[in-house]
Amino acid sequence: MSTYRLDILTPERKFFSGDVEALIYHIADGEICILKGHMPMVTALEIGAIRIKQGGKWREAAASEGFVEVRPDQTLIFAQAVEWPEEIDVRRAKAALEMAEEQLRQKKSMLEYRQSEISLARAMARLRVTNQNTKDYD
């Protein structure tokens, strides 16, 4: 399978840079798979897992919101945060999940409700990646 360049950047670091065979990430209405030669586009990156196929093997990371620029020979991801499963503090992620669920139960303004939804989605994505990091997507 042919490869293309993938760079994943966050405000704190260059998370990933290398040649990959495929990339799967979340968009507003589902998931999208990027292969070499994909038509150029820019999409919003939704909170969830990013799956990278490199050397015939899939690797998964948790990502927060951002955007993705796809070119025929390169894809750039700019995200607020991206973490490999081994970088995630599961206890802290579970605590964040519980706090977000509690905040959603309380009557709050629309802004506070939306912020709680985002916190909940982020915590769920982080926990999902830590529990399923060995899943095979072939």
Would you give an account of this structure?
With 138 residues, the protein is α+β, with helices and mostly antiparallel strands. It folds into 2 domains: 4-85, F0F1 ATP synthase delta/epsilon subunit, N-terminal (ATP Synthase, domain 1); 87-131, Up-down Bundle (Single alpha-helices involved in coiled-coils or other helix-helix interfaces), CATH 1.20.5. It is built from 2 helices and 10 strands, in the order E-E-E-E-E-E-E-E-E-E-H-H. It has helices at residues 90-105, 110-131; strands spanning 4-9, 14-20, 22-27, 30-34, 41-45, 48-54, 57-63, 66-70, 74-79, 82-83. The strands form 2 sheets. The protein has a 5-stranded mixed beta sheet, with no helix packed on it. It has a 5-stranded antiparallel beta sheet with strand order 4-3-6-7-10. Helix 1 (90-105) runs antiparallel to helix 2 (110-131). The longest helix is centred in the C-terminal third of the chain and has 22 residues, at 110-131. It is elongated. It starts with a strand and ends in a 7-residue tail after the last helix. Residues 132-138 have low confidence and may be disordered.
Brief description of this entry?
The protein is an alpha+beta fold. The chain has two helices and ten strands, in the order E-E-E-E-E-E-E-E-E-E-H-H. Helix 1 packs antiparallel against helix 2 (110-131).
Instruction: Report on the biggest sheet.
Output: 5 strands, mixed
Structural class: alpha+beta
- Relevant CATH superfamily of the largest domain: F0F1 ATP synthase delta/epsilon subunit, N-terminal
Helix content: 25-40%
User: Low-confidence segments, ≥5 residues, pLDDT <50?
Assistant: 132-138
CATH class of the largest domain: Mainly Beta
Please state how the strands of the largest beta sheet are arranged side by side. 2-1-9-8-5
The global form is elongated
Structural domains: how many = 2
Number of helices: 2
**Name given to the CATH architecture of the largest domain:** Sandwich
